[in-house]
Write a structure and sequence with these properties.
eight-stranded antiparallel sheet, mainly beta, Immunoglobulin-like, flat, SH3 type barrels, about 0% helix
């Protein structure tokens, strides 16, 4: 192959991908109603690609109609596990059985150039925001790719394997969890960035892109971290159930969500994190003991794929109710779920069936194996064909068909011969009513209340809402709370209409659990039946980020200040300063710090995190810090007619900016100091020789003067005086 383009090489990517071209891949692009695969073909703008593993096919589905409008068949891949990566106009197919990666041209329904690149099965390929990478997760190699040609770009990056599932944020930065180091590594334009510490070494980490930002969830410590420029932007403390469950029993979306919400499924607990505000809500759902997949969020609903039943479990967060299930296949089997173009796509790769769900919750079935693609010149859209009917077919205004008034006679059941009925009176005496006292009527108690959802509030209270469980009639509901807490209202009537309690008096950082009791009349006394307990819930939310960050240089060092957030009760601060010098301090109670170890001029990034028991948010700013500028007289300048030099650089050989005659009678402005070239006094005196220079200004002449001449208060003059006089930048 001509040119300098390099393809995946076993020696370059530590065995991840071997040299590329395997010849023309036998690809049959099946375009019904179009003719040749090379013809231009317009697929629906709102659509998604779904795999059919048994047939070795990739089908494109119109998201608005649920109809298949294009198909690509990859010869020799039937029965292989296939994965589709679709971002914008880039569609990649990863054959996870063979490790072959191919790219589909949606305009022609074929594989571009008919070439694929073979690598180790099980590798991860990610694409998004115009960037693409291949990762060997076990060996820790990351290779940048050209998203269109799949050619390698630049050298591979070596990280510490095994790596977690990676994803690309809205700024085209690749984020990679590195559990061995407890870090999230970043790569931008093929170059590694500064890793961010997100946990302890060995923690169980997962990555999700939400609202364009990277969100790392540490299942070991039950924390979610929203990453931004320079580090952690938001830290969210999760319910302790996340850390208590065995590894693998808590799941988070491994790629991206629609909007800022990140759903976690921890056993039967559904936890929803808002990556923008940092808020957390948790609800203990009544879920079957089935094989459930990672939940997906679309609009106000959370969808949980149930592989045991081949359906979607639906939780409506607006009503706090489980909505009717959405059928996918109706039988056990693998399910793939992702959100794209404001639609939820759920596919069984081993089945002809899939489903697409819109933001209102309406869904349309998909038949992937259909041999007809509606909309073509030869195949108009069929009515009621084998692609399945819409969930809500249009109603008709036509009159109903008449009911027949005549027809064949209805046959009578045959009368079988038997003994004739006796009309003799019974010899048994008539029954007499019992004389003992009757038992009271049996009472049907109400069912336990369900869907307890506890949500911390910014004011330190906790909202607890629930749903009545049905069953027998209840007289009302009350909240069972730990000692020391208060509840309003004290009781909620049986008919609601609002089933929400507010709890006050909690301590920030402490978890609380609740139960709701349904009261009812049990004969001549009152009884109640309690719900299952809610998930452990904190009584506070993390504070907002500090604002108004300032920085200045003083004779005592850098002074950093900030404004406390409005919800700063019980808050402490963490300060990180990076630049020519660095500084970190935790558990600061005030809103300003003077740092005696920072006394070098330059640009500094200042990050201040406000935290409480629920987590923290970080504010950041870039400030130029310079030390104090003062005027000092000149001494040790020699005889009256001698000259004292200001050099252009901190080097006697750099040239003279100004020669000052009778220097002892004059003064200079000093703004910083610098260690430069060795200066030896003509007298050879050690006390007048050294490498320290003062940066001075004398009547507009700017340069460097050897440090023994300005009469600064620092002694010995050969050493930097900071923070009294700051070190020069650079």
């Amino acid at each position: 192959m001509s040119g300098e383009r390099r393809f995946f090489r076993r020696d370059r990517l530590t065995g991840l991908i071997a040299i590329g071209a395997v010849g023309v891949l036998c690809v049959a692009a099946v375009v019904f109603g179009v003719g040749m695969a090379s013809a231009k073909y317009h697929l629906a703008d709102v659509g998604g690609w779904l795999t059919s593993s048994k047939k070795g096919e990739l089908v494109h589905v119109n998201g608005l109609s649920g109809k298949v409008d294009g198909k690509v068949t990859l010869s020799g891949t039937a029965g292989h596990k296939m994965r589709v990566i679709q971002q914008g106009g880039v569609v990649l197919i990863v054959d996870e059985t063979t490790g072959v990666v191919s790219r589909v041209d949606p305009a022609h329904l074929n594989v571009v150039q008919g070439v694929s690149y073979r690598g180790a099965a099980g590798m991860q390929v990610v694409s998004g925001s115009g960037a693409a990478y291949a990762l060997d997760q076990m060996k820790g190699s990351v290779q940048r790719l050209d998203a269109m040609s799949l050619a390698t770009e630049g050298d591979p990056i070596s990280l510490t394997g095994p790596l977690g599932a990676a994803a690309i944020d809205a700024k085209a930065t690749l984020w990679v969890p590195v559990p061995t180091n407890g870090q999230a590594a970043s790569v931008l334009s093929g170059r590694p960035g500064q890793p961010v510490g997100v946990g302890r070494a060995g923690d169980d980490l997962a990555l999700t892109i939400a609202g364009g930002s990277a969100v790392v969830t540490d299942f070991t410590t039950a924390e979610s971290l929203v990453l931004g420029d320079g580090g952690i932007r938001v830290k969210v403390k999760l319910p302790s159930v996340v850390a208590q469950l065995p590894k693998g029993q808590v799941t988070a979306p491994p790629t991206a969500t629609d909007g800022q919400l990140v759903p976690l499924l921890a056993g039967k607990s559904l936890i929803v994190i808002n990556a923008g505000s940092g808020s957390v809500s948790s609800v203990a759902l009544q879920l079957p003991q089935h094989k459930l997949m990672t939940p997906q969020v679309l609009g106000q609903r959370v969808y949980i794929p149930d592989q045991s039943s081949g359906s979607l479990l639906v939780y409506d967060s607006a009503t706090n109710r489980m909505a009717p299930q959405v059928p996918v296949t109706g039988r056990p089997g693998p399910l793939e779920a992702f959100v794209k173009d404001g639609l939820l796509w759920v596919n069984n790769p081993d089945s002809p069936k899939a489903v697409v769900v819109d933001g209102s919750g309406a869904h349309k079935p998909v038949q992937k194996y259909t041999g007809k693609v509606p909309g073509g010149a030869e195949n108009p859209i069929p009515k009621g064909d084998d692609q399945g009917q819409d969930n809500n077919p249009p109603t008709s205004n036509a009159p109903a068909p008449p009911v027949p008034t005549s027809g064949p006679p209805v046959p009578r059941l045959p009368i079988h011969p038997g003994h004739p009925r006796s009309h003799k009176p019974s010899m048994k005496p008539p029954k007499t009513p019992p004389t003992h006292k009757t038992d009271p009527p049996k009472v049907t108690p109400p069912n336990k209340p369900t869907n307890l959802r506890a949500t911390p509030q910014p004011d330190g209270s906790i909202k607890v809402d629930f749903q009545p469980g049905g069953g027998g009639p209840a007289t009302g509901y009350k909240l069972v709370v730990p000692a020391g807490l208060t509840v309003t209202p004290a009781t909620i009537p049986a008919d609601g209409p609002d089933y929400t309690f507010t709890v006050h008096g909690g301590t920030c950082g402490t978890e609380y659990v609740f139960a709701v009791a349904a009261t009812y009349k049990n004969g001549d006394h009152d009884s109640d039946i309690e719900s299952d307990q809610s998930d452990p819930t904190l009584s506070c939310t993390q504070p907002d980020a500090p604002s108004g960050i300032t920085g200045s240089g003083t004779a005592q060092g850098a002074k950093i200040g900030w404004q406390a957030p409005p919800n700063a009760k019980g808050v402490t601060y963490r300060l990180q300063v990076t630049g020519p010098k660095s500084y970190t301090k935790d558990s600061i109670s005030g809103t300003s710090v003077t740092i005696p170890t920072i006394w070098k001029n330059g640009s500094y990034t200042i990050r201040v995190t406000a935290s409480n028991g629920a987590g923290g948010k970080t504010g950041s700013a870039t400030r130029t810090l310079t030390g104090p500028v003062r005027t000092y007289g000149i001494h040790n300048g020699g005889l009256a007619n001698e000259y004292s030099n200001i050099w252009k650089q901190a080097d006697p050989n750099s040239g003279v900016a100004e020669a000052i005659k009778n220097a002892n009678s004059q003064s200079v402005v000093v703004d910083c100091q610098k260690i430069g070239a060795q200066y030896t006094h003509p007298s050879k005196k050690a006390s007048l020789s050294g490498k320290l220079y003062d940066h001075v200004n004398h009547n507009g002449h700017v340069g460097y003067m050897i440090g023994y001449l300005p009469n600064t208060p620092h002694s010995p003059w050969q050493e930097l005086a900071g923070p009294t006089i700051w070190e020069c930048a650079g």
